[in-house]
Amino acid sequence: MSSDAATQLSYLDEGAGPRAWLLTTDHKRVAWLYLVSLTAFFFLGGAFAVLMRLELATPGGDLVSDDVYNRLFSLHGIIMVWFFLVPSIPATLGNFLLPLMIGARDLAFPRLNLASWYVFVFGSLFALFSVLAGGVDTGWTFYTPLSTLYANGFVSTAAMGVFIVGFSSIMTGINFIVTVHTLRAPGLTWFRLPIFVWTIYATALVMVLATPVLAASLILIVLERVFGIGIFNPDLGGDPLLFQHLFWFYSHPAVYIMILPGMGVVSEVLPCFSRRPLFGYKAVALSSMAIAVFGFLVWGHHMFVSGQSAYAGVIFSFLSFCVAIPSAIKVFNWSLTLRKGEITFEAPMLYALFFLALFTFGGLAGLFLAALAVDVHVHDTYFVVAHFHYIMVGGMVTAYMAGLHFWWPKMTGRMYSETWGRIAAAATFIGFNLTFFPQFVLGFLGMPRRYHTYPPEFQFWHVLSSAGAVVLAAGYLMPLFYLGWSLFRGARAPDNPWGATGLEWQTASPPPPHNFERMPRVSRPPYAYAMKGLKHERFSPHKETTGETAA
Amino acid sequence: MSASTRSVAFDTPAREKAADAFGMWVFVGSEAMLFGAVMLVFFVARVSYGPAFAAASKHLSLTLGTLNTAVLITSSFTMALAHFYSDARRWRAAVGTLAATALLGIAFLAIKGTEYAMEFHEGIAPVLGAPFTFDGPDPVHAAFFFGLYFTMTALHGLHLACGIIVVAGLLALWRGADASSRKRRVQAVGLYWHFVDVVWVFLFPVLYLINR
Amino acid sequence: MSEIRKLAVAYVSLLLLLALTVGSSFFDLGGFNSGLNLAIAVAKAVIIATLFMHLATAGTLPRLAVAAAGLWLAILFGLTLAGQWGNGS
User: Fold this and answer.
1) Domains present along chain A, CATH in parentheses
2) Which residue among B19, B38, B127 places its CB closest to the CB of A108?
3) Three-state DSSP state, A492
4) What is the residue extent of each domain of chain B?
5) CB proximity C16 to B under 8 Å
6) Which of A25, A113, A460, A493 has the highest CB neighbour number within 10 Å of its CB?
7) Residue A448 bridge partners (DSSP)
8) pTM of the shown model
9) Is A12 on the interface with C (CB under 8 A)?
10) What is the CATH T-level fold of the domain B13-208, as seen in this structure?
């Protein structure tokens, strides 16, 4: 549809110096700024995890002291949650794709978009300072009164870092919401939007409405630590439980900030590689919005053993079961999309299928935790750790990798090595299950979280988990190399290498600076795969790539 | 695309102005959640320690608080006028009302500062290690009240200070801006300013008028 | 000029409401003082939002933003208080 990629100037040709990148307002370049910074944080947070798994390979505290271990898991959590998972897909793929998918030249507020990255960097400096200065030992949740009365790490700076990064989320959220409402191409009605746009929109809604509450709770912690105002200190009339309410009002929905965009990615990838329209499009779209709303009603399930009222426990338990329904709707629809499809197993599809398996598994484990009585048994054990890693890593990070591979040709104009992509996908799937499945067993046997030593009878499962972590780390390191290599040596990507529907594939790879040569008009529903009267060539990635992938 | 839109994404200034307003409203909604969370903390404490909070509240200056509310309402009025004048392209009147708005904002902060000074002097400011000498019943929970009072008013004051800075910046950039940018900026900063006023409208009765 | 009149009416009613809320605090209304104060604050907020912030004429999108914030604030207050006081303590 677009002109020849070779003769056309792309957004990557618009100057290569630091100025051209650091002062850009092009959403595609801002996406790259985020991608580079988030990748750095991902590997930093991963390094802390590797150190923890090393320590846990033996029952004794051989490698690190208890205090250092506290700091390791706190920093791992803080960095992975606040500095990688929350911004991950929205700030990188979302930033890059949202305007392309709705046929716009850019986001509604391009300068706000760049500013959000600078705010992110500024906040991350605080966090990095806390890491270098000696760490934090409160866990990623900053629970009071531990964080206000007892913790002696750099809690205030870390909390300030998270607070500032929250602003960057709010800025991104406002930008996305306004963009989706005001900049859709002619003919692109709400029910013609790709699911990725729906999920990014739902995510933005949660970011805008929940992040300020987190900001408030973090301000109050800092005020308490620095100015001595006893807001959460029972001796001074405060209530530590109130912190947990405010914190989880944000942080449970934040789980949906993290998983919704992943669901969006998978909803794009599965139809493409099974050549089928997404089954139950409207149900999937509306269930995203349902998750965004109902996600706010369940935070109390983090507090079943925190001394909230018993009636509230029952209500929150019930609501937590209810919130599984929209997710289940999605899983069924994805599965039915595959039915009778002409499925091929390119790397993005492998990642998406692994997402489907791991997310379903982790989600079902969540139902155990939503049941009041079971939760009392497994609360604060490795069962919980395994559960949320199945969602956050098995779900979200896998979906992130799926999206990164799927849109890599669009973002860079280059094809990555399909062979290596498949190997990495398989390595992450095997490594992930080996790391985290044993943790379900450990938790059920009674191994509590946040301990650096344990009784010897748990060692078998811990060794399996540590071995899995090595495979998983390899699975995440491989893309760094073959994707990086493809930037310079990969085969030139055609405009639409996967034969996918969606406006982003109708422009050049990589796209021109303002995305489209001619502004698109939309006249048909999304995922028009295998529809009568529409031809979609089945693309063979091997045909157009060089010898190294054709093997 | 045309020269008068700020963002390349929009075709017409009118469309961009509508998007700007919507963006500001979303931001205002987000800010409402921030103040809502702090208010929630206050509300829980207020219900738990009613008598102590009422006794402590009497030590705030109702006169200065009322005066400040009037000042802030007036500043909102001048801001609304500035919006009207800039839409009507009566630029001189718009600049005048904007300047008045900023000055009223400064007056508010000055009065608030006087109150803070009085409270530190009286020994009812339990922050930064200042001595706390409250002679009523239940001084522990009175201190909690004052802690929340300082938190909430300082958070509000910080927002107001940001608003003053933005209005000042808007005036500094006034000459170089074309008509549509001026209108758009006045509209955006106006929405923010009025929101900060609304926050005070709630803070004032909640903090100053706790009934005995 | 009618626009300026509208703004002036809003301004005067805001000042009157301020006088009302301050004045009412000198009388003991038997536990209804806080309720009255909050009702007056809501009334002032509505005046500021509809007339100063032009919510009345601003179209659907800004109202959507306000409605969303209102709903989410209700969730925040409702469920937190249910958790805090659900036992009737």
Assistant:
1) 25-550 (1.20.210.10)
2) B19
3) strand
4) 13-208
5) no
6) A113
7) A381
8) 0.92
9) no
10) Four Helix Bundle (Hemerythrin (Met), subunit A) (1.20.120)
